[in-house]
Each structure stands twice: as structure tokens, then as C-alpha cells.
Specification:
With 246 residues, the chain is mainly α. The protein has ten helices and no strands. The longest helix is centred in the first third of the chain and has 25 residues.
Length: 246
């Protein structure tokens, strides 16, 4: 990669980390979108996204947990199946002909979630889901997390909010811890993929660390969140189209 591309990738990754960490996410879909825009090789995209996810989600989990905003029982209810499933998914190598459309579709789904901002649900008392719900859901999200290099949080958080399993602020803590566990398992499931990490990784790590620090400090209430998330959603749409049609 030339220096100009590296700078732009780092800037976009920092922006993605700031936006996603503000709501407890690791930002993998943003990192995948950025790498897709700059035609990074698919075999490099997956481990890089997981490695960056690991840092951002780990920081977010620590930050939310230290403030008492993480429901560890709910994390465990999903992680019991998600973590081993992510380990299995991480060991599966998909050829580019399959990986690119799969990630492209996931990016579009993530974009739809970002572009569609429903009104805040009416206040209600959170209720814990049964293991009959969390165990299969965790397994599906875990496989997707390891297979594609995402943490699964972009899908878990709307489920938690929509079904009233936890209140919004604590949902961010749950999702951060969930993503961290899946990212660890995804990388462990395919240790060989670490050899495909780019030499520019220290630059990208520095960028997302700065973004995560800013995002978790600002928080949702201090950001003009709807418009920023819509902008990010537009980037995901473009990147998804690039993977699907080129």
C-alpha cells in the first residue's frame, strides 16, 4: 500500500472506531468496509478486522464494566455457544468468491441498521431471555463472527434492544464483552491467519485506539449520532457494493 492509502485507511478506521465504540461496538464492519474500498486482499481483511475489534471491544468492555454498565449474566448466556462457534468459524477459510459476497451482504445489513434509526422504544423493565433463545442465537452469531471477521455485535445489540432484554446503556456493555470474546475465539480458531496481518497494522492499531478513546469518552448523548451513523451507513453501502459487484 502507498502512503496516501495508508493515511486514508487509518483515518477512516479511526472514525469507524469512534462511532462504533460510542455504542459499545468494536467496529469490524467499518474496518472491513474501509479495507474493501482500498482493495485489500480478502485473506488479510478477516484477521485484521478481528485484531482491531479485539482492541476496541476490549477497551469498551473495560470502560463499561468499570462503570457498572455490563450485565455479565447476559453476556455469558450468549457467549456459552458464541465463543466456541466463533472458534470454529475462525478456522474456516472461505475462497474470495464466497467471502466477498458474504461480507458484502453483511455490510449491507449493517448499513441498513445504521441508516434505519427507529424511535426509542417505550421505557419498559428489561427481562432476561431464556437459554432456549440465547444459546442458539449465540451459536449463529458466533459462527458469523469467526467466519467473516466481525464480532456479531451489529446484530446482537438491536436484538437486545428490540426484545427488551436490557436497557440501552447496559446493552453497550454486553455487546462490547460479547464482541471481545468472539474476536479472541475467531483469531484463535485460525492462528495461521495472523501471518497475513499487514505490516501497517501498528499504524491501524494506533488509529483505532485513538478513535476508541474518543468514542467511549464522548458517548452516545454527546454525538450528533443520527447523521454520523447515516454517513457511516453510506460508506458501508458503497463498500458492500464494491465487494458484491467487482
Amino acid at each position: 500500500m502507498d502512503s496516501t492509502a495508508i493515511v486514508w485507511i487509518a483515518v477512516l478506521m479511526a472514525l469507524g472506531a469512534a462511532l462504533y465504540s460510542s455504542v459499545g461496538h468494536g467496529g469490524a464492519s467499518a474496518y472491513l468496509a474501509t479495507m474493501a474500498l482500498f482493495s485489500v486482499a480478502p485473506e488479510t481483511m478477516k484477521p485484521t478486522a478481528l485484531a482491531l475489534n479485539l482492541l476496541v471491544a476490549g477497551f469498551g468492555a473495560w470502560r463499561y464494566s468499570s462503570k457498572g454498565l455490563c450485565n455479565w449474566k447476559l453476556v455469558l448466556a450468549f457467549a456459552l455457544t458464541a465463543t466456541p462457534a466463533a472458534f470454529i468459524g475462525g478456522g474456516i477459510h472461505l475462497p474470495a468468491i464466497y467471502y466477498k459476497p458474504l461480507v458484502g451482504i453483511l455490510l449491507w445489513l449493517a448499513a441498513a441498521r445504521l441508516l434505519w434509526q427507529p424511535r426509542q422504544l417505550a421505557e419498559r423493565e428489561p427481562h432476561a431471555p431464556s437459554l432456549a433463545v440465547t444459546l442458539p442465537t449465540g451459536a449463529v452469531l458466533g459462527v458469523l463472527a469467526g467466519l467473516t471477521g466481525t464480532g456479531g455485535g451489529i446484530f446482537l445489540s438491536p436484538l437486545i434492544i428490540l426484545f427488551g432484554w436490557e436497557e440501552p446503556r447496559r446493552t453497550s456493555g454486553v455487546v462490547s464483552a460479547f464482541i471481545f470474546a468472539n474476536s479472541v475465539a475467531g483469531l484463535a480458531g485460525n492462528v495461521a491467519s495472523i501471518g497475513r496481518l499487514p505490516s501497517e497494522l501498528p499504524i491501524f492499531i494506533t488509529a483505532v485506539a485513538i478513535g476508541a478513546g474518543l468514542g467511549t469518552w464522548l458517548g452516545v448523548s454527546r454525538l450528533p449520532r443520527p447523521w454520523l451513523l447515516r454517513f457511516l451507513g453510506a460508506v458501508l453501502l458503497v463498500a458492500g457494493a464494491k465487494l458484491l459487484f467487482t
